[in-house]
Amino acid sequence: MNRQPSPPLFLLRLFRWFCDPRIVEDIEGDLVERFEKRVKNKGHKKAKRLFIKDVFRLFRPGIIRSVAGSQKLNPFGMLKNNIKVARRQLMRNKMYSSIKIGGFSIGIAVCLLIALFIRDELNYDQHIGNRDNLFMVVNEYNNNGDIEKFTWFPPPFSEAIGNDFPEVLYSGRMLFNDYFGAGSASIRRDGQVVNIFDDGFAFADQSILDMFGYEMTNGDAKQALSQPRTLVMTQSRADLLFPESNPIGQIVYVNDDTEKPYTVTGVLADLPANSTIKFDYLLSLKEQEFLVRSQNSWGSNNYQVFVQLQNPGLEEQLAPKLDAIKTNYWLPSLKKAGYADAEEIAKSYHYSLLPISDLHLQSGDINDPFEKGDIKYIWTISLIAFFVLSLACINFINLSTAKSANRAKEVGLRKTIGSTKGNLVRQFLTESILFSLFSFVLALVLVLLALPQFNQLTEKSITLPWNTLWFIPILFSASLALGVIAGLYPAFYLSRFTPIKVIKGSVSQGSKNSQLRNIMVVFQFVASIILIIATLVVNDQLKFILTKDLGFEKEKVILLQNTDLLGNSAKTFRTELAKSPMIESISFGGYLPISGTKRNGNMWWNDGRTKIDDGVVGQNWRVDQHYLETLGIELISGRNFSIDLKTDSMAIVINESMAESLGFSEDPIGKRITSYINNSVVYTVIGVVKDFHFEAMHNPIAPLALRLRNDQSTSAIRVKADQMNEVIDLIQNTWDKTAPNQPFIYEFLDQRFSSMYSEIEKNKRILTVFAILAIIIACLGLLGLSIFMIQQKNKEICVRIALGAKPLQILGLLGTSFMKPIVLSFFIALPVAWYMMGRWLNDFAYNVGLNFGPFFQAGFAAILIALITIGFQSIKASNTNPAIGLKDE
Amino acid sequence: MGKNHLGEFEEIVMLTVAILHGEAYGVAIIEEMETRLNRSVSIGSLQVVLKRLEEKGYLTSELGQATKVRGGKRKRFFTVTNLGKEMLQTSKEQRNSLWNAVPEFSLKAISL
């Protein structure tokens, strides 16, 4: 036969490519046949041309293959089947499935909450537009090798830094010190008598507004604070104070000080919840004089200094030059004040810059007035999140493989029919992804339920970011990924079974798996026991603090805020109240034995030794003659102040710690001490009080001196009656009479005292939650192990039952083998917890001490919980009909 | 009638398949139509109709044996199903009833 002329191969290939594969063969045959016939009848050329025409006319819907490809139909069908099988599996073992999904979703929920928390922490101060070139100035004090960082500076520091360095665009100060009236205060409009008691007062320079770029809803941000006695407030406060009128230009009084009226010059949008630098009112620092001629003095450190640089990146150039301020300004002032070792003192200080973006998380070692987070904490909780999630995954794996016997026959049958290993892996993965999806949905519900509590605990206002584009896709892909991760091992494990063995009925896979399980259970129980011990110890310490003898009596004392507003009628108020038999005594004074009330730290020397001795750091409080009586502080020698003695204005009462620090070995009464470096004012000690706790119990009681001075900001009232309501009504009536229309704000001293330890209370609650979660997760691990073990020992158990073993004996048989890992984990947890809690307690100068009580309680609790978990399974196992377990043989 | 209505080309294809009785595959159908009706048909338009008729259930097909011709590709042979036969029958009856209703003179005038 002659060589056949062939149709153009290129076109034929094109046709094969675009044609639906199901019909390609016969149509191609038709094409070729037609071509061959045409070659015979009409010649090669024409046939070729007609062939081209035919191919192009085949390029039409119905012939072209579908874009998705026809082969996809098959896996989809399989997927449908896999999902159906997974659903049946889920419904068939309801209890088992709910344990699996429940455990997994708890882990995911914890992780999700922690992730939201971390996101919130990382988003702090992100709203500040200039954060790349905004810095806070830090003062580093080298205390014989220990670097102590703080951020308080003398008043002229900011101006000096702005004038002397061309890199600085703006420099400005903020003042948060409550000694000068920042913090909480009362405020009222001109023309109204009612004061509003509020906190969030701070002082600031105009340049602070320029630097931070706060959004101003009303007023001119460029010069709102540029004039003396001007004030800006946030929108929410403006709405409160000026509900109908325009606040701009209005007069307000702070602390009822009508001699110093403030003009409202601006309203700021409320600061975002995640701002480190928080305030609601900014008062202009322009021409403010808190102390006589203080604004030009380099002698006191009270101001936070911020700088904005000309452009980002200049900080490296600027930072080394900052110490010039020290040598140019501060050192001369030290010399002038008469410090012989001025050079030495100045040498131990160094100035540096802290980027504002590091303020929230990276400045844990810096002492400043802001509430901050801690990057170490973020790392720790990230680790916890990872840990919890991996434990949840491991448990998921554990429970999936533990139930393998139930699935073994299915696997065997599927393999016999012709299923490949790949098919089975896919089937089990589908199942675990389905479980994972369910768990994610449940976890979201849990998070929604827990979020209010969680926000309360963390003092945040976190919400689920539904409205962001990434949230749902990330959750979805995370659930797929977790499903695959958690399902991979069970999938391979289950699909490995050989049909012949499975159907014969022997699925005992090696014991090394149970070894792995044992290790995991030990691990989980170590974590749980440590957490239980920590919870118990923290609880003990908290109880210790709240019941300890404090040196003052915190019960039945009412604190009245805002008594500044009484003005000159304070005396009337006191005499009016004192008439009632329900009132025991009244003391005016803002210095209270509660953290967060007024403080005034000074250096103290013996008379005439200021240039010789180092000096003792101690508090210098202004109190009245009723202070000791009202707070129930015991005087151990000497006498109390007397208002009738003129000389008592120079008298002083000290605590034992001060007496000891100043080296008064014999009776300190009559000794003369001073807090002035130039020895200009000297006080005479007239009494010594027993040490009382005036700060949290982390540090030993510090030296303290009390002076008779008028300070009216708060009033402490000791009452007799048991009927607190009556007493409060009485006080309020008296208040309303003497200070009509002023806000009546009271607290109880003992409540304020407990709130000092709210941080520990918070830790206790967090620990409790984690301990419970850890126990749940550990129990799931144990459950997985016990199901697996019972399955392994199924025949033994059945034979024993058949021979007459009682349920308790079965429990004994299983229990002893389970108790080993629990007891082992107790002995691992013991020293770890001992060390950790020892370190925690060391933070307190006054602590409850370590004893074995909580340790044994925790161990006992762990063993009990484990026993219940195992017991349930054991009883179930011993109640099965042995015939069922043995019939496979 | 609706979707069960047969198009003109569909009807011709089905009739041709019936004529070829067991020997109806792509090229054969085209050649049969070309010779009998003097009508040129492309493979594309024929295949689309064949596929559609098969989906409707009027035709069924099976692949034949591979031969040396046509590049070794198998032929797909079509046959009319019972449903298809019924369909053809109804179609024919409908036309007949239409023909019968036409008055004779109106057609004569055209034929002249």
Write a brief structural summary.
The complex is a heterodimer of chains A (889) and B (112). Chain A has 889 residues and is an alpha+beta fold.
Taking Cα atoms only, what radius of gyration of chain B do you get, to the nearest Å? Answer: 17 Å
Could you name the CATH class of chain B?
Answer: Mainly Alpha
Secondary structural class of chain B: mainly alpha
Total individual domains of chain B? 1
- Biggest sheet of chain A, open or closed, and with what strands and sense? 6 strands, mixed, barrel
Order of helices and strands of chain B: HHHEEHH
CATH second-level architecture of chain B: Orthogonal Bundle
Enumerate how many helices of chain A there are, as a single number.
27
CATH level 4 superfamily of chain B = Winged helix-like DNA-binding domain superfamily/Winged helix DNA-binding domain
Per DSSP E runs of 2 or more residues, the count of β-strands of chain A stands at 24
Multimeric status of the protein: heterodimer
Give the neighbour order of strands across the main sheet of chain A.
Answer: 4-5-10-7-9-8
Question: Characteristics of this structure?
Answer:
heterodimer; A: 889 residues; 4 domains; 6-stranded mixed barrel; 50% helix; 15% strand; B: 112 residues; mainly alpha; Arc Repressor Mutant, subunit A; 2 strands; 60% helix; 9% strand
List the helices and strands and how they pair.
The complex is a heterodimer of chains A (889) and B (112).
Chain A: H1 9-18, H2 24-42, H3 44-58, H4 73-92, H5 94-122, E1 134-143, E2 146-150, H6 157-164, E3 168-175, E4 183-189, E5 196-204, H7 206-212, E6 216-219, E7 230-234, H8 235-241, E8 251-254, E9 262-268, E10 281-284, E11 304-309, H9 315-318, H10 323-337, H11 342-347, E12 349-355, E13 366-367, H12 375-402, H13 404-417, H14 421-458, H15 471-495, H16 499-504, H17 512-547, E14 557-561, H18 570-578, E15 583-588, E16 601-606, E17 616-623, H19 627-631, E18 635-638, E19 651-655, H20 656-661, E20 672-674, E21 683-689, E22 704-708, E23 714-719, H21 724-738, E24 746-748, H22 749-755, H23 758-792, H24 794-802, H25 807-842, H26 852-878, H27 882-886
Parallel strand pairs in A: 2-13, 5-10, 7-9, 17-22, 19-21
Antiparallel strand pairs in A: 1-2, 1-11, 1-12, 3-5, 3-11, 4-5, 4-8, 6-9, 7-10, 8-9, 14-23, 14-24, 15-23, 16-17, 16-20, 18-21, 19-22, 20-21
Helix pairs in contact in A: 2-3, 4-5, 4-14, 5-12, 5-14, 5-23, 12-15, 12-23, 14-15, 17-23, 17-25, 17-26, 18-21, 23-26, 25-26
Chain B: H1 8-20, H2 26-37, H3 43-56, E1 59-63, E2 76-80, H4 82-101, H5 104-111
Helix pairs in contact in B: 1-2, 1-3
